[in-house]
Amino acid sequence: MTRQTRRRLTVALTGALVGISSPLWGPLILRGIPAFHVKTVEVSGTRFASDADIRQMSGINSLASIWDDPSSWESSIVEHPLVEEARVVRAGLDRLRIEVREVRPAALVPVPGLVAVDGDGYQLDVDPAAHGLDLPILRKATIDSATGRIREEEARRSLAVLEEIDLLAPEFVERVSEVLPLDSEAFDLRLMEGSLVQSLTLPFRDASRAFLQAAAAIQAADQRGAIVSADARYAEKVFVRTGGER
Predict the structure, then answer these.
(1) Which CATH number is 67's domain given?
(2) Cα-Cα end-to-end distance for the chain
(3) CA distances from 10 to 4, 16, 216 (A)
(4) Are 83 and 163 part of one and the same domain?
(5) 109 and 230 part of one domain
(6) Burial environment of residue 100 by CB neighbours within 10 A (0 to 12, 13 to 18, 19 or more)
(7) Rounded to 5, what percent of the chain is helix, strand, coil?
(8) Of the residues 80, 102, 124, which one is the last residue of a structural domain?
(9) What number of H helices and E strands is found in the chain?
(10) Are residues 127 and 232 in the same domain?
(11) Residues 6+ apart with CB under 8 A from 232
């Protein structure tokens, strides 16, 4: 092979690689290559949803290419009632991986029999016993059979605040055993035995601020004995009741 031939071949290969790697033309060229047709679809991130259901809802089939635009697949997957977010990524020459973030159960509602609900108060098709869900029991709540959502506004607001507090102190929320709406202004959190406080009352308004104030007051009162309850409904004040020695 002469030097001139090698130079021409190098130029041709470079041009081909530039064309394939181009954001505009690359995927269009690669989609037509049979080696890139999808043979395997992996699913990750599921706990409650079936992997088979996720694959079916995606619409990915053997005619698809790993270089296809995944947006339509992702849109189809999030139609699943247990899926909050989905992402389809290339995982190999002929493999795709569906990465799922599921809707998170926030509480259990006795209606009777325990049913799981999300942070917006919608019932989830999740068996609490089968999945060993250890979640707070939400009292004074019923499920509307037509919408699948909790009817009572106070109960829904209680859930919303619980989700808000979970961002601040997930270890605290893990110890909440019951959530009890009191009225249109406040609700109670009942905690597991052995927790630093047995009951915490919070307002719906400015709940995060009230919770942080209550946490500081509970820490300060901890030296005086077992804490029965803390009430943070009142602006800039937290009333703490202790029950004597531990």
Answers:
(1) 3.10.20.310
(2) 91
(3) 10, 10, 70
(4) no
(5) yes
(6) buried
(7) 35, 30, 35
(8) 102
(9) 8, 13
(10) yes
(11) 200, 201, 202, 203, 210, 211, 213, 214, 217, 238
* Angle between helical axes of 153-168 and 207-221 (0-180°, round to 10): 60
Residues 159/180, Cβ–Cβ less than 8 Å: no
Quote the DSSP letter at residue 132. Answer: T
What is the Cα–Cα distance from 146 to 67, expressed in whole angstroms? 42
pLDDT in tens, 186-229: 999 999 998 989 999 999 999 999 999 999 998 888 666 678 99
Same domain membership, residue 177 and residue 137: yes
pTM (predicted TM-score): 0.79
**Same domain as 141, residue 228:** yes
CA proximity to 150, closest of 185, 190, 108: 108
Q: Whole domain around residue 45: which residue ranges?
A: 32-102
| 83 three-class SS | strand
Chain-centroid distance, C-alpha 227? 33
What is the tally of structural domains in the chain? 3
List, in order, residues 6 or more apart from 210 with CB less than 8 Å away: 202, 203, 232, 233, 238
